[in-house]
Amino acid sequence: MKLLAIGNLDEEFRYLERLPEVVQNLNISAILFAGNILQAEARKEEWQKTLEEGREPNLQRPEIVRERENDAESLKTFFILLSKLNRPTFIVPGKHDAPERFFLQAAFNHEYISPNIFMVHRSFAPLGRNYIAAGFGGEITDDHREHEMFLMYPGWEAEFSLDFLRHLDQDKILLLHTPPKETFEPAIEEAGSDIISTIIKTYDPHVVVCTRENRQKGKMRIGNTLVVAATPLKEGYYAVIDTQERSVEFGDLR
Questions:
Q1: Percentage of residues in the chain with pLDDT exceeding 70?
Q2: Domain assignment of residue 126, given as a range
């Protein structure tokens, strides 16, 4: 079975519009999206100011209000284009896909309309054969939680939310936004999460799909698990995972 792994769309839809051809030509069985539908430029600017000025974020800034209206349209476009792939598609939110309730409402609305879209943040869904897809999105932190400006969760919350995995006998495909601590190939200095590493070692998934802070492609092995960093679809990149061979090839739509 071949899986298409993508992430970091950042509201750049031109390559997403071209994916049906890739899905058809490569005989893709399912799609995995590892987060960051939205760009969040106004929120990033406001977040930086709150850190510099030591104050609470002002969510009523005109730039943020306008951005939120644009975000609603971008989410709608994203899910419409996903439906056109005509394959089971599993998604988790990225750090930018906030507020949490805003993303979850959009995802569940489109889950109801489209039978092929599955939001697996804190949840799971059958993927085919003896596989299930499960996931946890957003940025994993040591102890900080934020769900209005960005999606940031303390590590204990990710561990607690995925505890259901111990009760599932199927082979697991784990979809995350935050990478583990171990070093990817190619090696670049970056900060992954010890908690994500622990989750992978605890549940021994068949495949893990995540993103990297530097947004570059990458792969690694943690025990028997193939870990793949989904390259940014914004720039035309994607990854194809062969579940039988437990291997990955990276593609380029540019």
A1: 99
A2: 2-252
Backbone φ and ψ for 167, nearest 5 degrees, come out as: -95, 0
DSSP of 193-247, one letter per residue? BHHHHHHHHHH--SEEEE--TT---EEEEETTEEEEEPPBGGGTEEEEEETTTTE
The CB density around residue 146, as the number of other CB atoms within 10 Å, is 18
Domain of residue 112, CATH code:
3.60.21.10
Residue with token string 């071949």: 2
Q: End-to-end CA distance of the chain, in Å?
A: 25
218: which residues sit within 8 A by CB, 6+ positions away?
Answer: 184, 185, 186, 212, 228, 229
Number of domains in the chain: 1
Residue with tokens 């056109």, as numbered in its chain:
84
Q: φ and ψ at 235, to 5 degrees?
A: -100, 5
| CA-only gyration radius of the chain, Å | 17
- Using one digit for the tens of pLDDT, what is the confidence trace for 37-89? 999 999 999 999 988 998 888 989 999 999 999 999 999 999 999 999 999 99
Is residue 119 within 8 A of residue 75, CB to CB? The reply is: no
pTM of the model as a whole: 0.95
Instruction: Output 35 or 128, whichever has higher pLDDT.
Output: 35
Are 108 and 119 a contacting pair, CB within 8 Å? yes
